[in-house]
# Entry
Amino acid sequence: MTTSTRTASTHGTPVPLKPVVHAMHVALLGLALGSAAHAQETQAPADTPAATPASGTTLPAVKVRARDEAETGTGPVRGYVAKRSTAGTRTDTPIVETPQSISVVTADRIEAMGATNVKDALSYTPGINSSPWGDDTQYDWIYIRGFDAYSPGFYLDGLALRNAGSWAVWQTENYGTERIEVLRGPSSVLYGQNGPGGVVNVVSKRPTATPQNEIQVQLGDPERRQVAGDFSGPLTESGEWLYRITGLVRDGETSRGLSDDRQFIAPSLTWRPSAATNVTFLSQYLRMRVGSDWSSYPAEGTLLPAPNGQIPISTFVGEPAFNRYDQDQWMVGYLAEHKIDDRWTVRQNLRYARFDTDYKTMYNGDFVSKTDPTDPAYYRTMSRTPFGSLEKSRSLVVTTEAEARLQTGPVSHTLLGGLDYQNTRFDIEANYGGTVAPIDLYAPVYGSPVTLAPAFLNQRTTLSQTGLYLQDQLKFDQRWVVTVGGRYDSASTETENHLGGTTNKDTDHKFTSRAGVVYLAPAGWAPYASYSESFAPNTTVDPSTGKPFKPQTGQQVEAGVRYQPPGRSESYSAAVFDILRRKYVTWDTTTPPPTPKQTGEVEVRGVELEASLQPIPRMNLLLAYTWIPKAEVTESPNASEIGKQDNAVPENQFSAWTDYRFDGGFKAGLGVRYVGSTYGSKSASLAKIPAYTLVDAMIGYDFGRWALALNARNLGDKVYVANCDGSGLSCSYGTERKVNGTVTYRW
# Structure
C-alpha cells in the first residue's frame, strides 16, 4: 500500500522585456513625477475631512482611523462593508458598478475574528475553501470556486507574488494588511496569466495623515507569545511626508509542538508634494521559522476504521529536528500616482523582492508490517519518506498605467491603458527519498537520524510576462455601466537543468477579453452580467511536435445582483456562474507508457450568496453560502476520470458570523462554518469524507484606549478529516482548536 504526495510541477509565465517597454515605463513615470511641481491642484487636498458615519453605525472596535480621507479602493474601511475597490477594474470604482463578483475582508473584520493568516480571514467568504489540505502550517493554500489558487499565486498591492508551482511561495502577514480582496472568476485581462477561479489581492497598510499608534500583546494556545506595533502619522507639519512602521515578533508552537516563530517589519513612507502627486514607498522583511506539518496520515485510522482505533491528531509523523519551513523574505517598491489634470492620471507601481527558503518534510509511506492485514499490528507502524528543497527567488514586477476620465455626449468614460512586466527567477535544489526509521502512529518516538537521497532536481526557472491591456468603463443615463477590456500577453518560461546541463525556453502569446454590464436601479439594486477569460502557459512537451502544449484557458459566464441600501453600511449580493477550464494537460494511461494529451476540461457551476448587515444598532451579521452542484471533469483521455471531481469541492458551504457591542464596552461574537462532504482529490477517497461544522467565538472588552479580546477557532476542538489525496490512501486532519488572547493599547 503506497500513498501519493502533494507536490507541484514547475511551470511558468511571460516573455523578455523589449527596450521599448523600458522606454514607456520611464517616460510615463517621468511625466508623473517631473510635472508634479507644475501641476494644478485640481482636487481637494488629501487632508479634507471625511463625512462622519451615519447614526446607528457602530465600529467593530474603538480604534483611531485616518479621518482625513473618504473611502478609497485601497484605503481603510470603517467596519466590515467596503463600497469601493480597485481589484475588479484596476481603477477606484464602486463595487456595485463592477460586473464581476468581489468580496473585501477589511482590517476591522480580520481583527474581530482573530484571523492570524489569509486563509482564516477568508473562511467566511463565499466561493472559498480555506482549508483544502487541512492543517498545513506553511501555506495559505485555498481553492476559489473549485480551482487551486496556490499557483500562480496571490497579489500584493495589485502586483503579482508569482509562484513557480514548486515548494516555496511568497508569504504575507495579516497584521500588516489593510484589506484582502477576492475577485472571483477568470481575470487575465487585468492581471495576465492566472487561474480560472479568481484572484486574491492583499492590500498593505499605508501611511496615514492622522497620527495613530498601537501596541499589542497576544498570548495563545499552543505556546503563542507575540508582541506587535503599528505607528503612523505625518513627519512634517504640512503633511507632505507621512510614515508608517508596522511589525511583530512571535515565539510560538504549532499544535504538534513544532516551532511557529515569525518576525515581521514593514516601514513605509508617503511623499505628497502637491494634491496632484502621491508616491508611497513600501518595504517589508519577514522571517519565518515554522515546523513543516501536513497533518496527513493513512486513510485507515482517519477516514476508515482501524483495529487500533483512530490515529491521534496529536501524532506528528515527521522528525522535530528535521521538518522545517524556514524562509527569509524582503520586498521594496513604490506606488506612484500623478494627476495631470481633471481628466488624466498616470500611475506606476513597482516591487523588487527576494526570498531564501529551506524546506524539509516527511511524506507518508507504507505500513511496514508484513503480517496478516487482519492483525492490528499491521496498521500501527508506518514508513516515512523524507523530502527537502532549498530554494531562492528574486522577482521584479512593474506596472505603468494611464487613466482618462472623458465625456462623449451623454456617455462618460473611464479609460485605462496599461503595460506590465514581471520577471521572477527560482533556483531550486530538491531531494526526494533517503533513509529514516519508521514511526509508530500510536506511540511515536522521535530522534531518528535522517539521510536525504541525492538531488533529483537542480534547476533555475525564470518566469517572465509582458502584457499590454486596454479597458473602458462606459456610464450613461447614470443607470448603465458597461465595462469592456482586452489584453495581449507574451509569457515565457526558461529552465536551466543543472543536473542534465540543458536549457529549455518556451514562449506563449495570448489575447484575452472581458465584457460586462451593470444596471444601477433605484434604491440601491444593481443587477449585472459578464464574460471573462484567463490563460496559463503549459510547460509539458507534446511528444508529437516536440514543442510545449498551448496555454490552458478559462472562460466564465456570470450573472448576479447586488444591493446596497442608500445611507446604510450594508451589502447584499448573489451570483450564478459557469466556468470552463480548457486545454489543460492530462496523462493518457489507457496504454503504456502514459502519454500527455491536451484534452482536459473541467466545468464548475454554482451559486454564491453573501450579506453583510447591521440588523440592529451595534450588531454586525455576515452570511455566506456557496452551492456548487457541478465541479467535474468533462473531457479526458481517461474515460474513468470523466464525471469525477478534479479537486475536492463540496456541494454546499455555509458560514455565519455575528458580533454585538453591549453598553459599557463589552463585546461578543459567534461564528459557524459548515463544509459539505466530498470524495477527496480526484474523487479517489476510499469512503465519503463527512461534512463538518465548526464554531468560532470572540469575547472582549473596550475601555478608554484599551481593547481586550479572546478569540477561539474550532471552539469545540472538533476532529475531522479535511481531504484525502489523489491516491485515496492518505488523508489530512483539519485544524484543531486555537485560542488567542489579545491586549491592545491605542493612542
Q: What stands out?
A: The mean pLDDT is 89. The radius of gyration is 26 Å. Residues 51 and 119 are 33 Å apart (CA to CA).
